[in-house]
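ok so i was messing around last nite and threw this chain in just to see what happens. nothing serious, just curious
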Amino acid sequence: MATDVDLTVEDGIAWLTMRRPETRNAVEAEFMEAAIDTLDKLPDGVGALVLAGEGPAFCVGVDLHMTRDAISNGQIEEKLLRLLSAMHTITRKLRALPVPTVAAVEGAAAGAGVGLACACDLRVVGASTAFVPGFQALGLSPDSGTSFHLSRALGSPVAIAAFLRNRRITADELLARGLADEVAPDGQVWAAAQRLAAEVAGASPAALLATRRLMDAASTHSFDEHLDAEEASIRPLLTTADVAEGVAAFLERRRPNFQGAAAR
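result:
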């Protein structure tokens, strides 16, 4: 299974690539555990990460042949709950990486594949890409953060309708709803993702992590609570070398060289 996922670095951009094109990158426990192990080997000095899937689809969610066999053989714990744990581990790890992340979504993303794509900060999709919720058609509720992201982007009424109807969300709608940052011609998604990753590479790690936390918490706060959260977040950043570097770079009209340094 370890050979089904690889990590490469090109011009300071890391690529975590799922390589099970024969299954359309359908997920099972060993596959996602290999992805977690590979992600844990992210080298120092990387400025951004791209998540991609080889073949005609980004990721079509759970491997249904494996699921059928697991149910028939009484292997719910060993196969399906183990997969669920792995999916939630990798989505949490993607959200906790101190570098910007970009999903290169060529072809379909379905079920947990939608969750993987949405766990990244940014998404480039192909012209024929669609997100397919998938879960309700299998008698399942969502996992991998899919309901978290789709309810925020679409609104709860539209999101639950998408789940109930298993509605394909096309590339144009993904772009309009903020679920995609760019639509590229089919076959050019990876090149576009590399360019986008290079654009955002080198973000201040502390500022990035703090911004993600604020975004995730925003819908649960009152306005006053969120102002307090913003103040608590920005206070420690003001004493970091990254802020000094960011201000200097802005005034000098150059790109900042953030190091993620601790507070001075």
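not much to say yet. The first helix runs from residue 29 to 39.
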